[in-house]
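Hey team,

Filing this mostly as a record. A colleague (T.K.) asked me to run one chain through the structure pipeline before their review meeting, and I want the input and output archived in the tracker in case anyone asks later how it was produced. No errors, nothing strange. Just documentation.

Input sequence:
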Amino acid sequence: MSDTVRCRFAPAPSGSIHVGNARSALFSWLFARHSGGSFVLRVEDTDASRVTEEAYHGVLESLRWLGLDWDEGPDVGGPHGPYRQSERTDIYRELVDRLIAEGNAYRCYCTAEELEAIKQEAIARGKPPGGDDGRCLRLTGAERSAFEREGRPFTVRFAMPEREWVVDDLVKGEVRFPEGQLRDFVLVRSDGTPVFLLAVAADDMLMEVTHVIRGDDLLASAPRNAAVIEALGGTPPRYAHLPQVLGMDGKPLSKRHGSTSVEAFREQGFLPEALMNYLALLGWSKDESTTFFSRDELVEAFDLSRVSSNPAAFDTKKLEWMNNHYIQSLGEDELAARCLHFLTESGLLPDPSTLRASMPIVRERMKTLKDSVTLLRFLFTDDVEPDEKARETIAKAPPGYLAKVADALEIVEPWEHAAIMATLDAVGTAEGLNRSKGFEPVRAAVTGSKVSPPLPESLELLGREATVARLRATAG
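Output structure:
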């Protein structure tokens, strides 16, 4: 095994990358970068029925958007390629032949019915179910030859050594698997394709991976991975199994909790800096007081010893709060550039100077970049139709109120927010309205909504002509 830290992330791209897997990738990347080592991206795509090219490219794009880079991988190459398991079948075949020749693996000819009978017998005896109880390992040469002549399909099973297995996990601590608990397991399917337990072990060994950081749903795989590596003459990596990411209801995070993928959060307008920062704090902390970290600060501070062994709850509200912090930290030009994508996606064509000028009045109100569409639509379209709540607000205004506001604003000089505010206050006071009640129908008529950026600043940006026209059109 290499003396240099080498971590890997090995997604199986059957869809968008889940935030739980993204956290595993982030922790692996942080540990590698903190240690001055290498981060390897390896794609587990041996199951052709689940993996798509679209998902494969989507995973790479999501990881890059999040801010992760890799030293070796399918798109950048490296000394241990290929980095897609579907391109490594000859390597696996050679290793399986070695395992069989050295008595560490064997062909299993059991049918599905026979395996089910073995399983039920084990359960009846209070034994762990699984495997073929070693019967195919004990076949005579004549019995094996008979099955071959018959053309009976077979899998290849690993002969799991009968002993206690101990995983010294860097997060969970010492995890013991008593003798007899781990049964022989399949390495190669009957169609000749390798399974996860073979491919992962072989690749971790051949790619000289020193540390495997992954979800604790794979903890039971660790002794099996280690056993295969040892049988091949290698040294198993150190394992660090991260607790699950849960929803706020304490159940495993899933689609019922809303967005669960990096792609979905990106499409909603979350900043990669915010999502990276938030994911880093799901089960890890530097101390009790520090919340916000830049990418470089995370690399400097990250330490596996401070990863919690307890599940972490994904709180979208906290992520939104953190996202707003990062939105407010951006300069006007940068924030406008990031909002532009969401505005144009919604069919709007913002004037660049107006868009930049609007940033100071919307940044505090934006939980995500996509909020810019709702907040600024009135600026960049002539099609402003008051929604239901806005119509109700307009209907409650004193008779002729909007026409009076239009008359007053038409002669305001200069057209800037302080003068606009003074004029709105004067008209509202004359009608017996406080500022809130006086602004509401104007906002509803001009923006089409009861919610907008500060009204005087909004009208300044919209311009006198459009403001007055909308007020008169609504007033009738």
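Quick notes for T.K.: Residues 1-75+243-329 form a domain with the Rossmann fold fold (CATH 3.40.50.620). The chain has a mean pLDDT of 93.
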